[in-house]
Amino acid sequence: MKPTFDPTQYKITAKANWNTVASEYHYNWADKKIGPFKSTGEIVKLANIRPDDKVLDVACGTGVVSKEISQCLGPKGLLVGIDLSRTALGIAKGTISFQNSNFVEMDAENIGFNFKFDKVTCQYGLMFFPDSSKVLESIRKILNKDGMLVVAVHGLAEDVPYFSTIMKPILEYIPDIRPAGTPTVHRFGNPKDLESELAGAGFEHVTVTRYDHAYEPGTFEEYWEDYMHSTANSIRSKIQSHGQETMNKIKQGAQKNALRYEKNGNLVFPWTVLVASGINR
């Protein structure tokens, strides 16, 4: 039997994990605008930021979306970024020079502001919130009438093989690696599910656009090392506790899965991103 999902412990683990990997995540991925971060500009473009807008960036991480938003704002504009990770917020503060910007350590399920925003963005966060409906309802409460929410999520497992190539054999050999009910990276990878989630929270005129990118992690060995030390950081110790033989089987399975994406010795993964928007009426 799988262990029971505990949302509080999940958040504690997520916070510790992001405090550990934030720097590597930022400088090796997000800041380079590679792979899924090619969609960062699309989020900001869709949000149609005006110079005097008040904008909230939820789960802002190291501030890659916030940074692009800040470049659209004028002296009367306001940018606020919230995230669980103090380390990520520190990076965001250090990379954004916009004067009217604030970065606050805050849980997206308990947004605590007594004023309203014109726009809210959230890149690669919605699928990880234990109670995503609560987050969306909280966002609606702090959005002005006709204010806009723009979110980005990763596609389904078959459309984002960077994750599934290794995760499939992990789940094969360690099926209880995570408690049943744990949010997954592909949770809203189906456009209909994403649209339904926003509409169900009360957003109107919901649109979902699919973007297909490519990501090149290098050789299989480079991909494996990067994945295990960044993406799988929070579960790596659990995997290792099953012994080297299990680790070898997982690696062999992943290498077999990766063969179809190999070109001239390097891997080229397709990467689907869904960007959705909704209006608060």
Describe this protein's structure:
The structure is a single chain. The protein is of the alpha/beta class and 281 residues long. The chain has a domain at 7-157 and 182-214 and 271-280: Rossmann fold (3-Layer(aba) Sandwich), CATH 3.40.50. The chain contains ten helices and eight strands. Strands 1, 2, 3, 4, 5, 6, 7 and 8 form an eight-stranded mixed β-sheet that branches. Strand 1 (54-58), helix 3 (64-70) and strand 2 (78-83) form a beta-alpha-beta unit. Helix 1 runs parallel beside helix 4 (86-95) and helix 2 (40-47) packs across helix 3. The chain is globular, with a radius of gyration of 19 Å. The mean pLDDT is 95.
User: Roughly how much helix do the residues carry, as a percent range?
Assistant: 40-55%
Instruction: Please state the CA-atom Rg, rounded to the nearest Å.
Output: 19 Å
How much strand?
A: 15-25%
Give the CATH architecture of the domain at 7-157 and 182-214 and 271-280.
Answer: 3-Layer(aba) Sandwich
Largest sheet: 8 strands, mixed
- The first-level CATH class of the domain at 7-157 and 182-214 and 271-280 is given as Alpha Beta
Separate helix tally: 10
